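Why do we bother with holo predictions? Because pocket geometry can differ from the apo form. Keep that in mind while you read this record for tryptophan.
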Amino acid sequence: MTDRDAGVRYVHPEWSSRWAFVLAATGSAVGLGNVWKFPYMAGAGGGGAFVLVYIFCVALIGVPIMMSEIMLGRRARRSPVNTMRVLAREAGASPIWQLVGWMGMVTGFLILSFYSVVAGWTMAYVFRVADGAILAQSPLGVRQAFGALVGDPRQGLLWHTLFMLMTTAVVARGVRAGLERAVKLMMPALFLLLLALVFYAVRNGAFREGFEFLFRTDFTKLTPAVLLGAMGQAFFSLSLGMGAIMVYGSYLPRRSSIAGTTLVIVAADTMVALLAGLAVFPIVFANGMEPASGPSLIFQTLPLAFGQMPGGAVWGGLFFVLLVLAAWTSSISLIEPAVAWLTEARGVHRAAASALAGLLAWSLGILTVMSFSDWAFEFKFLGMQKANGFFDILDILTTNLTLPLGGILIVAFAGWVMPRALAGEELDVRSRTAFELWSWLARYVAPALVTVLLVFLLLGNYLYA
Ligand code: TRP
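The structure, written out:
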């Protein structure tokens, strides 16, 4: 590899250890996707059917793609755009591969724009729950309180702005000072509180019903919408398909096991999602609520649980604080590819690059803020009724289309374009069988599955529209 194309003075940063990378990547993966999105997607997708497909996708698609992203990033040690460009050149392939990096950057902005708005609601809930007002309410009251928050664009905008400032501030401080520090404490703490919530659900909720809803598979519920939604959720939850994990991989010191690292991240991410589901659905059924109520689900259920718990205001407040932190360690990875590119290829100062990226995502976020009030509009997608205009469009476009597309291209590049010997050396898996397994998943299984599911999307549009 030559360094001709890197600026002379630019030095690519590095994590302080492999452990720091594991924390950062887990921080990126674990976020609102697990605690907010997974339960409501599972609720809308009929529970067990969705969960089963989701777990399949995580194992067969998520794992090989995550390994590929880390490997490509670590080999090239550049932003995703330049990683793809340099590695394509190294393999004698077309420079057009760098489009994968560009698409990822755009996708990151689109996702961050709505992610920040939802993280903003989470921040607002810290105060609502901690002061106890929302906890004394009936299920109807809790629902109305959520409606009042998202229906007021001024509040939505305020919290969205605050969250975006927090995100930009960490990204501006850079890899070690900013990203690493942020994740070390919060992940274990969130995990423990989720366990406590599940424990509560076992004792006081309709746990059995919730459990069966999540794990009993009713195959009649497997519609194209559910299949596609579950695949998209696997990409979203694992932060795959847009270069977030790739850019984190580019800061990874050499000589650390990519396969082992991937398994740790994937296991943690899946555990947190399932725990969130186990915490939420018993409350849903104990209170006769609707599992398919959409993005408002956790905001309508969790306050009820905290309301009945001794010390609920404290625990609830703490829970939402941790959720904000989890969202924070995720949001930073959404603009890191763009910031890395601006600093490395354009010589922009990191602080300026972060501010620029934050401003762009913030402006786009206004579309989502307004989607729950003045600009709400309904439409039908794959047989699903969608009610929140731009928010739903941004979500569907990224989660169900550009992330899977980026993911296929990344994994196909790693499996087919990159010379096999190189991939083997980079992945450095101890056994030959493990390498063959990765190669088989990366070359055939993952690309074929994603393609089939994406075709479902297009066909489903006709069949179910
Ligand atoms: N995975 C994060 C979550 O579950 C969100 C996220 C961070 C993400 N970076 C990403 C999603 C990159 C897709 C792509 O909350």
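The CA atoms of residues 143 and 300 lie 5 Å apart.
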